[in-house]
Amino acid sequence: MIRDSDPRGQRTGPEPGPSARWARVKAVFLEALEQPESERGTFIERATAGDHDLRAQVRSLLDNDGAAGDFCETPAAALLGREDPALALAPQRLAPGTRLGVYEVVAFIAAGGMGEVYRARHTILGRDVAIKTVSATHANEASGRRLIREARHASVLSHPNICTSSDVGVVGDVPFIVMQYVDGEPLHQILRRGVLPLARALDYAVQIASALAHAHAQGIIHRDLKSSNVVVDTEGKPVVLDFGLARRLPDGAGAPPHNSTLTGRDEVAGTVSHMAPEILRGQPADARSDIWSLGVLLYELVTSELPFHGRTSFEMSSAILGEPARPVVVRVPLAVRLVIERCLAKDPDARYQHAAEIRDALDTIRRRHPWLVAGRLLFSARPRTITTAVAVACLIPIIAIAGRAVYARFATGGVAPATTLALLPLRNETGDPRAAYYADGVSDAIIAQLGAAGEVRVLSRASTTRAASWARSAEETGAALGADVVVDGALHEAGRNIRVEMRVIVPSTRQVVWSRTFERTASEILALQADVVRAVASAVRVTLRPGASERLTAVRAVSPAVYEEYLKGRYEWNRRTPASLKSAIDHFTRAAALDPSYAPAHAALADCLNLLGTVMLGGGSPRELRPRAEAEAIRALQLDPSSAEARAALGYVWHYDWRFADAEREFRRAIELNPSYSMARIWYANLLMSRERMPEALKQVFAARELDPFSLIVQTNVGWVLDRAGRHDDAVAQLERTLTIDSTYVQARWRLAAALMNGKRFDEAIAQGQSLIALSDSAPPSLALVAQIEARAGRPDAARALLAAARRRAHTSYLPPASEAAVFSALGEVDSAMTWLEKAFAERSNAIVYLAGDFFDPPLRRDPRFQALVARVGSR
After folding, report:
1. Residue pLDDT, tens place only, 753-795
2. Residues 848-868: pLDDT tens digits?
3. Cα separation of 56 and 45, whole Å?
4. Contact 625, 614 (CB under 8 A)
5. What distance lies between CA 314 and its chain's CA centroid?
6. CATH dotted code for 423-557
7. Beta-carbon count within 10 A of 86 CB
8. pLDDT tens across 503-520, in order?
9. d(CA 743, CA 737)
10. How many helices (H) and strands (E) does the chain have?
11. Are the C-beta atoms of residues 81 and 189 closer than 8 Å to each other?
12. By C-alpha distance, which of 554, 495, 556 is closest to 523?
């Protein structure tokens, strides 16, 4: 719980909560918890003097907190698992042999503050059951109602991973419920013995998420999901227990209503360490509160620890409200970490909205990577990298003990060479906020050169930037990205010189193992970058590729004006909108004009011209743009044959000019020159996809995702290839995850609408299409896409209206003929579709190379003219 100050006077942040009244209740409650029990009553009287309602609310909270060990909040796994022999000596209300109707008590299992649980036998069926009843000291009308409520909730649930309730009865005036007897071990006890193998942790997680999804679908939320309320039975199946705190959603559905009234006004239920922030703020629980608790449980499953720590309830709630979860250890695959991080979003709207989404995400990770069973990692498909990562993990205790000796051992070969490197964006410490583009550009250049020079996986700046935006330190960023080495630095102006301070950090030990300062004149910025690359590669013991040393020493000078224009262009290029690409072209053109021999400017121009000619951006006709892109790429290669960027740009041109073999050669060469250049892999995947070589295409996009896990364009292309491979639901899930990174990214929204359409989820597709139209300012290609969806959904009038709107917009913006062809294809108007396809063919539209797939509808694809067009392109 965050307040202006805690009882010891330590400032902990601004007061949360929607009302000052509730904040006051919580403040007194939490301070009361820290008082000795013998003094608690006096403290409450003093703190609530004259405010009887406040006193009653605080005492109500204390009663609930004190019941943390009762039948509602007792770790139910301890109650319904094997009976503890030690507990047999405790006072028992029901002796063995006691009859409760057809049930005979066999043994006492456990008791909490209000409830007792027994193992019993059905005397007719001969079946073991668990019986829960209210203890004699707490038997009253309210506790009886609570027990009956639990039975009612459990009775509507039928799932293999949920403990079921089969009967209810009364002993004297005290009710009892009969439940499934789960013979097994509490999950929290299993986790105390150490970290589970990842395959088993994922298996448990999928089943528990499935159980929660079932409960939510029945309108029931658990409100106290935690490892101590899960038993793993003798067959290894996790079973969720204890719906004593459960509530029924008001609308009877699993959706998360914002006006839910699931608890009484003053009731706080559950376990603080697993409570969602909104519950601690006094807001009502809904399905998303269970999602948070599931996130805590997932964190426990893969780490055997809790994501938030605190010595008291006050400290724990303060951490939950005001601090990020502790980073999940690097050994856990990034995909799993991202699922956990989304579950633990402070804002309920930012979490998964349904437990079924978590179940599906984890199950997809498990199914796509069966080798997880062997305990291998998800970070890299290269066995050498995996083996080295495991070796580094094994060395962590030794490194930690070595302390100050780490640097010497690192530099002299005592530690394994880096396999995955994250270079964080250089901090702009020039004193001029406008120079941020310069720091970012230098970061990009160093990343590209490190990837090209050394045998190391180098993560992109896009991914490190996003990870660094929420991590608290460089070490946490590296851990989140799965990097065994982090390079951190800052850029300064020193008179007319540029100074860069760099350091190398090992995230696993939080040790800075190397640091150095580099300084050169602004005209020698390329040499400065080469200095950094050589020094970092040496510091982390990266083996340089053949020819890399020569390239790093043969660095030319560049005019500061040229380099600034180039970096400004790169800044605009990274935004990937028609307007930003045109602005980038202006900057790159000026850089090339100022220095025609500067190869990177020509390669970057080729990239911009290529993207402007795509159907999605619709910035202009490929007939005009692509020849210019080819000329710029060839010019860049004449100046620098080792440029991976220029090779990839030329491969892109030749792919859409139907020179498939030449394009593949260039893409392969680009990847050979810089295996960490993710865009070369993405464009190569597109070529493979157009040739219907889907397994190879998927391999390339997944490799790109490993390199660039937070890149919007990479993540979007993964979704596109999945969609073209017929895996529409996987594509939708991938693209939805991409939009959680940036909901305004037009390309991801486009691909999501298309994937939903291809999966015949038309209403959802139209909803995404409308968002796309708004995001793109009613761009003609966006209007045409939604027209295609409406046509496939059987609404031809709406489709024609949207196409007409797109044509009107085309007076000022470009409407690709391939977009019109797609609309007519969906309308079943084959002749009109063929007319526009011929125009797309004449302009060498990107869409033409994908004709052999299912981009167009069956009536058109069966037409002989279409098949002849496919043959002319050579798409098969």
Report:
1. 999 999 999 999 999 999 999 988 899 999 999 999 999 999 9
2. 898 877 667 889 989 999 999
3. 11
4. no
5. 29
6. 3.40.50.10070
7. 7
8. 998 887 888 888 899 888
9. 10
10. 37, 17
11. no
12. 556
* Residues written for the chain: 876
**423-557 and 560-675 have identical folds:** no
Beta bridge partners of 239: 231
pLDDT at residue number 326: 87
pLDDT, tens digit (0-9, with 9 covering 90-100), for 443-466: 888 888 888 877 888 887 777 877
For residues 226 and 300, what is the distance between their CA atoms, to the nearest angstrom? Answer: 9
Q: Which CATH superfamily is domain 560-675 in?
A: Tetratricopeptide repeat domain (1.25.40.10)
Domain 76-182 has CATH 3.30.230.10: no
State the Cα–Cα distance between residues 71 and 245, nearest whole angstrom.
10
User: Which pLDDT band, with edges at 50, 70 and 90, does 101 fall under?
Assistant: confident
Amino acid code (one letter) for 159: H
The C-alpha atoms of residue 247 and residue 149 are separated, in whole angstroms, by: 9
Between 352 and 90, whose confidence is greater? 352
CATH architecture of the domain 185-374 equals Orthogonal Bundle (1.10)
SS3 sequence of 36-92: CHHHHHHHHHHHCCCCHHHHHHHHHHHHHHHHHHCCCCCCHHHHHCCCCHHHHHCCC
Evaluate whether 355 touches 159 at the Cβ level (below 8 Å): no
> How far is it between the farthest Cα atoms of the chain?
97
Q: 142: burial class by Cβ within 10 Å (0-12, 13-18, 19+)?
A: exposed
Does this model's pTM top 0.85?
no
Please provide residue 27's backbone torsions phi and psi, each rounded to the nearest 5 degrees.
-60, -45
Residue 173, judged by CB atoms within 10 A of its CB (0-12, 13-18, 19+), counts as: exposed
Name residue, tokens 């948070």: 292
Please provide the DSSP assignment of 199-267 as one string: HHHHHHHHHHHHHHHHHHHTTEE-S---GGGEEEETTS-EEE---TT-EE-TTSSSS--TT---S-TT-
Exposure of 84 by Cβ count < 10 A (0-12 exposed, 13-18 middle, 19+ buried)? middle
Contact present, 393 and 508 (Cβ < 8 Å): yes
**Of residues 254, 191, 192, 251, the one with CA closest to residue 222:** 254
Name the token pair of 563: 């380099």
Neighbours of 317 (CB within 10 A): 24
Q: Which of 682, 679, 685 is nearest to 697 (CA)?
A: 685
d(CA 533, CA 505): 16
Determine the 3-state secondary structure of 164 from DSSP.
coil
Q: How far apart are CA 239 and CA 428, in angstroms?
A: 52
Q: Are 840 and 618 in contact (CB under 8 A)?
A: no
Tell me if 440 sits within 8 A of 571, measured CB to CB: yes
How high is the pLDDT of residue 680?
94
Following CA atoms 774, 775, 778, 782 in sequence, which dihedral angle do they give, to the nearest 10 degrees? Answer: -110
- β-partners of residue 184 are 233
Q: Is 497 helix (H, G, I), strand (E, B) or coil?
A: strand
Q: Are 410 and 513 in contact (CB under 8 A)?
A: yes
Amino acid at 524: E
297 pLDDT band, cuts 50/70/90, is very high
Question: What is the pLDDT confidence band of residue 801, given thresholds at 50, 70 and 90?
Answer: very high
Domain ranges of the chain: 20-69, 76-182, 185-374, 423-557, 560-675
Half-sphere exposure of 100 (CA within 13 A, CB side): 30
Among 693, 606, 699, 698, smallest CA distance to 654 is for 606
Catalytic residue IDs: 224
